[in-house]
Amino acid sequence: MENNAKVLFIKVGKVTTTKLENQKRKELVSGIKKYPVEKAYLSKTGFLEDEQADLNHHGGENKALFLFSNLTYKKINKDCNTNYKIDEVSHFGENIVLSNISEEDVCIGDIYKIGETIIQITQPRQPCWKLSANTNKKEMTKFIFNSGLTGWYAKVIKEGVISKNDMFELIERVEDDLTISILNKLMLNVDIDISLAKKAIESKYLGKPFQDSLKKRVQLKEKDNQFEVYHS
Hints:
13 strands, three-stranded antiparallel beta sheet
């Protein structure tokens, strides 16, 4: 990871309802549509101006902040032949877009300073059908899941204001080999490194939703169908 990673965009949004056409569901009720602001106050449960609709799967202290990378945007655009802009409404529900960093550079348990705040990385994002609905691309959710271009969540250790162009500075690393990228690969196929999958499950830094999903993967292997309802 380069040392000059910084905040390119901060995005917040309210819960909105979008009518869906030619899809299994008739409407999208979500806080996924977030818009750029110059700065925002980050509390223990997220930016004060931000909202989530499905509080069972989004938000809360362990998913207070959802971070994405401009590099991830570029990879998605290249692989999906799309042209999503990072300075527009959030296409993937991101609160923050960072420069010069990716899922391969960030580990669970990492502690970062951003502006006045201190955060700790908890888990990858687990993609659901709302990504396909919001981007109007039927296969987007499965693509994000299979590619591991998920972004990542963090909890808030110290509240405060984050401003555009603030630096994203690593303070401490506690799990060297549990990157967001490898966790996503393990979720696809735990057999690539079953010992590492078990280490992740036992880590006190891994968010419980991802931990539970990975545990089920280890137990059921190819019989696991937990994602079918979320991906379609």
